Amino acid sequence: MTPSIRLLARRRFLPLFCTQFLGAFNDNLFKTAMVLVATYGIYSNAELEAGFSALATALFTVPFFLLSALSGQLADTRDKARIVRLVKTLEIAIMVVGATGLLLKSIPVMLAAVLAMGVHSTFFGPIKYAILPQHLEPDEVLGGTGLVEAGTYMAILAGTILAGFIEPRTVAMVVLGVALLGWLAGRQVPAAPPMAGDLPKLDFHIVRSSIALVSGTMHIPRLFLAICSISFFWTIGAVLIIEFPPLVKNVFTADEQVASLFLAIFSVGVAIGSVLINRLLGGKVSARFAPASVVLMGGFVLFMYFVASGWQGLPDGRLFGLAEFIHHPGAAMISVALLGVAITGGMFVVPLYAFLTTTVPKDQTARTVAANNIVNSGAMVIGAVVVMALTTIGATVLQILLLVPAMCLIAAWLAQKLHRACD
């Protein structure tokens, strides 16, 4: 058993891991089911499908931009375990709304649940990273971060696969049950009181506190470069996730089970990359492999583009089912491309998150993660808006896909600067 895997047998790590896993599973089961219901059951227009996917991504991301400063303050100045219990209680209420939207096939109700889920994740997000240096030893932080990332993407895998194979009515029942399990797991997270002696007063002015938080973090060169690199990664991820459902339906002419397969392959790859980079770095926090990883990621996206450009659908205009798609001559190549994109993406981003929690004192880690979330979410919203704008003016899914390799080159440049700054 490797040292990082042993953390799963420790109460100081396992309850947080389970809480995060269940939350990520529920988020993605609901979001994937919602997008599939809209793509295959409500809309029949490629532009509307891409626009809905982009809108859902933007709504989920906006709370990170607006509320991360407050969530970071709370996590650094209050017991993190108590906040976990509160947000997990709220998740049950949110999933009641989401389940209602799925049952009624109501776009406004489903989007309202997505927005509320974004708020939930905004307040939980800083904790899942900031609590690690508090509960783990210094040489366990990278391994713990890798396990959290791997677990998150395995949860995404499970949620996205399940969404393509069960009916919306069943999804509604499952998300409620998983929210309850997450609440139970959250109650087992050990206490994580604030590390600072004097608790500062909370600033509820979201604009002022956000500006102060970001400016107070970004002046540190290695944090500035790490946050910018992570932001480009999540912008790339936003573009890919937005494009996957319409790409599957309108380019690969396949059904919702194949859409789930695409997202599942992506999730498996990121999990593999998250664990692999920890082994390559031997537990040391370093950006040594980040530039090469993201360049390779761009190369795999180009490979995906060329495979998609030559794709041949069924002659009668039907959609491929899962079995038919798997036997298509190009299925193996597109699977390799997707897996390559995801593995290299995981290898790129995990060490950068470890920078956020090891560069600053422990009593500032949540605010550092929150500052990162503000910049990341702003970049993701910009990415979603760009996709919506390009779709509106007639850009195809494949044309938009070509944005990704260009962004990978910028991310590689930033990662190289980070690596040099840390030598």
From TrEMBL:
<feature type="transmembrane region" description="Helical">
    <location>
        <begin position="50"/>
        <end position="71"/>
    </location>
</feature>
<feature type="transmembrane region" description="Helical">
    <location>
        <begin position="368"/>
        <end position="390"/>
    </location>
</feature>
<dbReference type="InterPro" id="IPR011701">
    <property type="entry name" value="MFS"/>
</dbReference>
<feature type="transmembrane region" description="Helical">
    <location>
        <begin position="331"/>
        <end position="356"/>
    </location>
</feature>
<keyword id="KW-0813">Transport</keyword>
<feature type="transmembrane region" description="Helical">
    <location>
        <begin position="396"/>
        <end position="415"/>
    </location>
</feature>
<feature type="transmembrane region" description="Helical">
    <location>
        <begin position="258"/>
        <end position="277"/>
    </location>
</feature>
<keyword id="KW-0472">Membrane</keyword>
<dbReference type="Pfam" id="PF07690">
    <property type="entry name" value="MFS_1"/>
</dbReference>
<protein>
    <submittedName>
        <fullName>MFS transporter</fullName>
    </submittedName>
</protein>
<keyword id="KW-0812">Transmembrane</keyword>
<feature type="transmembrane region" description="Helical">
    <location>
        <begin position="141"/>
        <end position="163"/>
    </location>
</feature>
<feature type="transmembrane region" description="Helical">
    <location>
        <begin position="289"/>
        <end position="311"/>
    </location>
</feature>
<dbReference type="GO" id="GO:0022857">
    <property type="term" value="F:transmembrane transporter activity"/>
</dbReference>
<keyword id="KW-1133">Transmembrane helix</keyword>
<feature type="transmembrane region" description="Helical">
    <location>
        <begin position="223"/>
        <end position="242"/>
    </location>
</feature>
<dbReference type="InterPro" id="IPR036259">
    <property type="entry name" value="MFS_trans_sf"/>
</dbReference>
<dbReference type="GO" id="GO:0005886">
    <property type="term" value="C:plasma membrane"/>
</dbReference>
<feature type="transmembrane region" description="Helical">
    <location>
        <begin position="83"/>
        <end position="104"/>
    </location>
</feature>
<keyword id="KW-1003">Cell membrane</keyword>
